[in-house]
Design brief:
Shape: globular
Number of domains: 1
CATH superfamily: Metallo-dependent phosphatases
Structural class: alpha/beta
CATH topology: Purple Acid Phosphatase, chain A, domain 2
Number of strands: 12
Strand order of the largest sheet: 3-2-1-11-12-9
Distance between the termini: 34 Å
Radius of gyration: 17 Å
Number of helices: 8
Bound molecules: zinc ion
Largest sheet: 6 strands, mixed
Length: 242
């Protein structure tokens, strides 16, 4: 069985469709989503409907909970707030309810799933350094913790008796004795300088994980952002992947 792992769609339908095509080609049959389906982008309803249809194991992101009043939005920047207000006007009742009922954490076999960090799921801290990632390993019993939130893909591995390290390979083996924290990056708003959508495929039979980057129609997404009257910065940043 293969799992399709993704996060931070942020209402970017073009990017989501491109990622789902990669999952289909890879033979993915189950899905895990680390949250932030909405926010920033121009297609909240279509994205939530597409994700819902996958019946994924899915947790809430700060934008999902911010939309429905389950987390304060005081820390959001101006363009994020503007997009969230716009999304609130667009979102259907059914899609809103789906977001409202997403849990903060999920577990499946040897996977622990959370948007920001296992230590404080509701406070949405950013894990950026090796040290920050490694500290989080004390807060879940499973082998692998999947996160999103920072929009920077990475994988950290700690083998017993060795210091934790970043995995530099695109594809790697998940060793049962080791512990991992893996950031899936962002489907709809990558910030690592690569504008392509990010996702991963987890091959459960081989016990291997692989990072994928997927080109999509950035210009089409930008056009919709501008047509919706959302901040221009949200369109321009997609081309730069920043
Ligand atoms: Zn996000």
């Amino acid at each position: 069985m293969k799992l399709g792992l993704f996060s931070d769609v942020h209402s970017n339908l073009e990017a989501l469709k491109a990622v789902l095509a990669v999952f289909k080609d890879a033979g993915v049959t189950r899905y895990v989503c680390c949250g932030d389906i909405i926010g920033y982008g121009p297609d909240p309803n279509k994205c939530v409907e597409l994700v819902r249809g996958l019946k994924p194991l899915c947790v809430a992101g700060n934008h999902d909970y911010g939309l429905v009043g389950r987390t304060p939005t005081s820390g959001f920047n101006q363009s994020a707030l503007q997009a969230l207000d716009w999304t609130r006007e667009q979102i259907t009742r059914t899609n809103r309810l789906y977001l409202e009922n997403l849990p903060l954490t999920e577990r499946m076999n040897q996977l622990f799933v959370v948007h920001a960090a296992p230590s404080e799921p509701a406070d949405w801290p950013y894990l950026l350094s090796l040290h920050e990632a490694e500290e989080e390993m004390d807060y879940y019993a499973e082998t692998v913790c999947l996160v999103g939130h920072s929009h920077y893909p990475f994988a950290v591995e700690r083998v017993p008796g060795e210091p934790a390290h970043f995995i530099r390979q695109e594809s790697f083996e998940v060793r049962p004795a080791a512990k991992y924290i893996i950031n899936l990056g962002s489907v709809g708003q990558p910030r690592d300088g690569d504008p392509r959508a990010a996702c991963m495929v987890y091959n459960l039979r081989a016990n291997t994980m692989m990072f994928h980057r997927v080109a999509y129609d950035v210009a089409a997404a930008q056009k919709k952002i501008r047509a919706a009257g959302l901040p221009d910065y949200l369109a321009s940043r997609l081309a730069a992947g920043r």
